[in-house]
């Protein structure tokens, strides 16, 4: 299909395929935490933040399953845009789980604490328990969502450790046992219509190269963050 747009499902699949052809191995965030000392020479940590659309996350699941690679999908529990327990979304989340992907919690606990006048720690413990129970899995990782409240959900972790909450990691944890963000070349589609990247934790100003344009640099460790709702078949408004 001819298409003037970059962020199509077909194009992102081709980019993943190019990375595989270049010799990269894809791993989940929990695999990174558990195998940090013995990673493949060319590793991509494959992270998906499900910000708005579980249905589009299912499209990514299909791509990953076709390519026989795994990802970590981080799921929100309080999004106005989706109910993880709706008939279709719960079916999809189970399919993601049953395909062998990691499911983590996409945290909004600072927002919750402010809106509900509750304690953020209580919100976190409750959300982890509910997501674990809902999908009958052990939630091992949390990634903070950047929403529209003006508050930063990441700030919670300035004085707290993942292990205090029975977790293995928080995605931006800078402690030596994890430290994925600073250790890697971090490539993200979070600006919707263009890519951005960080090296060693520093934003590379003006570097808008796509994921597949980076792989030819053969960086040993890439953290790739994509969002399902960035992608479409023909155009963004379909
Ligand atoms: Zn998010």
Question: Which features would summarize this protein structure in a list?
Answer:
32% helix, ten-stranded mixed β-sheet, 238 residues, binds zinc ion, alpha/beta, 10 strands, 8 helices, globular
Characterize the structure shown.
By secondary structure, the chain is α/β, with parallel strands linked by helices. It contains 8 helices and 10 strands. Strands 1, 2, 3, 4, 5, 6, 7, 8, 9 and 10 form a 10-stranded mixed β-sheet that branches. The longest helix is centred in the middle third of the chain and has 16 residues. The two termini are 15 Å apart.
Q: Number of helical segments? A: 8
The quaternary organization reads as: single chain
Our Rg estimate from Cα atoms comes to 17 Å
The proportion of residues in beta strands is 15-25%
**Ligands and ions found:** zinc ion
Number of DSSP-assigned strands:
10
Helix content: 25-40%
Tertiary shape: globular
Give me the secondary-structure category: alpha/beta
Topology pattern, helix = H, strand = E:
HEHEHEHEHHEEHEEEHE
How far apart are the first and last residues' alpha carbons, in Å? 15 Å
Mean pLDDT: 96
**Poorly predicted parts:** none
